[in-house]
Specification:
By secondary structure, this protein is mainly alpha-helical. It has one helix and no strands. The radius of gyration is 43 Å and the shape is rod-shaped.
């Protein structure tokens, strides 16, 4: 009878150890899940920051492109005015030389 009692007691301890191992495993998995969730939240925040920065850069790039385009147009207008001024100066010089 004592041997059966010890066997049953031993089985109860083994069951408790097995249950503790299962609970420990579940706890470790939950901690890993929490860690991964935190890491994911951090990564999503970084992605959001990069996307916002990218939008800012796109706006700045568009503004710079527009300014460069306006500067190119201004340059072309200035060159056309310079050519006209040179033509007018040449005409004035020719008129002055023929009158003199």
């Amino acid at each position: 009878m004592g041997m059966a009692y010890r066997e049953a007691e031993s089985a109860r301890y083994e069951l408790r150890i097995g249950m503790a191992a299962i609970l420990d495993k579940d706890q470790m998995q939950q901690e890993r899940i929490d860690c991964l969730r935190n890491e994911l939240a951090n990564l999503l925040a970084e992605v959001k920051m990069v996307r916002l920065s990218n939008e800012d850069l796109k706006k700045a790039n568009k503004q710079a492109y527009d300014r460069a385009e306006r500067a190119e147009l201004d340059l072309q207008k200035a060159q056309a005015r310079a050519v006209m001024a040179e033509d007018n100066a040449l005409k004035a010089a020719r008129t002055a030389s023929t009158l003199a």
